[in-house]
Amino acid sequence: MHSPLPPLSDAARAVADLKAHGFAVLAPDALSALCDVAIADLQSLRTDWDALPPDGYLRDGGRYRRRRHACYVQHGDQLVAAARRAHWQSEDYNALHGGMHRWFDPVAAATAAAPVWTTLIAGLGAVFGQVRARRPWYVEAHQFRIDTTDGIGRPTPEGAHRDGVDFVAVLLVAREGIKGGETRVFDADGPSGQRFTLTRPWSALLLDDHRVIHESTPIQPVDGAGHRDTLVLTYRSGAFQGED
Predict the structure, then answer these.
(1) 102-140 burial, b for 16+ CB within 10 Å, e for fewer?
(2) Count of helix runs (H) and strand runs (E) in the chain
(3) d(CA 178, CA 180)
(4) How far apart are CA 8 and CA 16, in angstroms?
């Protein structure tokens, strides 16, 4: 069974669709227009995902996830790097890994210094600020590679979930030699939902974390090894998780 095509929003409709539905899906050109970034500049970051270190905190015993992490505080259009900190989530939001202080390797200095990196993060923060004006944003950036080292890779081993923040952006960086990895978004308080597969590099899923839950299905190799690379950005008002 083929996954339906993503229900795309153009740049002009993204905020309205987020308000109406709790999520919006952007094609690369819409992301480019909305955040004033060039896709070619984003593509220049792609090789960074080849150097991600293993995630040593997987409680399911898997070896299929690699990642790096960075934190920022956004005041208006100004994005300021925060001191390195552990990633922490409540067990209410992550039954598998909640309650753990997970110290991931930081995003590479060259990546963090790239103008397109900070412009993208601040641009999405400005979008979310039009939906719910709660600033400053406390932002966490996660570079993920899910691979098929174990024969199967799980983008969301915790299952369908919320992240315990205000907004989430999931950006597809690459899909290589895999099948699966379908995105599923459900109303947090109702039965309705959508499923689709992001296939184009730098397409993006924007989520109102108060209104929807989300997951991605496992990936399997098509022929030999494969992987799925994403950039996940979370925006939370008031404080980082674990600080309030």
Answers:
(1) eebbebbeebeebebbbbbbbbbbbbbbebeeebbbbbb
(2) 5, 13
(3) 7
(4) 13
**Contact 72/139 with Cβ under 8 angstroms?**
yes
Do residues 55 and 154 touch, judged by C-beta distance below 8 A?
A: no
Structure-token match 């174990």, residue found: 150
How far apart (Å, rounded) are the C-alpha atoms in residues 158 and 29? 31
Per the CB < 8 A criterion, the answer to whether 175 and 203 are in contact is no
Q: Positive or negative, the Cα torsion across 69, 16, 94, 100?
A: positive
pLDDT digits (tens, 9 = 90+) for 20-45: 999 999 999 999 999 999 999 999 99
SS3 31: helix
How far is residue 42 from each of residues 30, 32, 61, 179, measured CA to CA in Å? 14, 9, 33, 24
Residues near 86 by beta carbon (within 8 Å), at least 6 away in sequence: 101, 102, 103, 242
Neighbours of 156 (CB within 10 A): 17
Q: Which amino acid, residue 209?
A: D
pTM comes to 0.93
What distance in Å separates the CA atoms of residue 24 and residue 124, rounded to the nearest whole number? 12
CA distance 152 to 219: 6
- The two most distant CA atoms of the chain are separated, in Å, by 47
Residue 77 · residue 118 · CB < 8 Å: no
pLDDT tens-digit profile of 41-74?
999 999 999 999 998 887 677 788 899 999 999 9
